[in-house]
Amino acid sequence: MFDRFGEFDSAEEINETAVNLRKEGDRESLKVLAEENGIDQDVLEVFLDGELLYLCDDMTAAIGKIDVEAKSVKCEEIMADWVEYIKEQCFDKPQMAQAVRRKGKSLAGCVAELLKWSFKHQNPVDKNIMKAAGVTAGRCTLGIPGVGTAKKIITDYYMGRKG
Fold first, then answer.
1. Between 3 and 128, where is the model more confident?
2. In this predicted structure, what is the pLDDT of residue 7?
3. Which residue, 20, 111, 122, 162, is most buried by CB atoms nearer than 10 A?
4. HEC letters along 29-86
């Protein structure tokens, strides 16, 4: 995922590297840097042309990281909804964008927190529901966080709060 340049801790670190690569004229490395960090190629071209001083801001750095990570985590259905919520928070709250970009924070780690909650909060599924669903197991449990709980888990994970 971050094979060549490693994981950056902030937009500032990405920009410092990008500016230095541009000064060196290393277009190929800049393309790799942008790709690894989910920075749009059109933005990269404008940056390469010197029309932008920096390659990204906190929000685009965070959204780019989430986009890159989502490809490897293979987010579908409810997980895709969680990803969209994280992106919305990055648009709306600069401190969330900065937190998402931090080293050591990852979409996989966030989903793991949601999964931990799910396993701790499993509830038995009624036998009539199991029968209607065609489930023949003797026992079935389900533990998916509601919207409010999922939002709290996501925010706590990225912002470093324990719930």
1. 128
2. 93
3. 111
4. HHHHHHHHCCCCHHHHHHHHCCCCCCCCCHHHHHHHHHHHHHHHHCCCCHHHHHHHHH
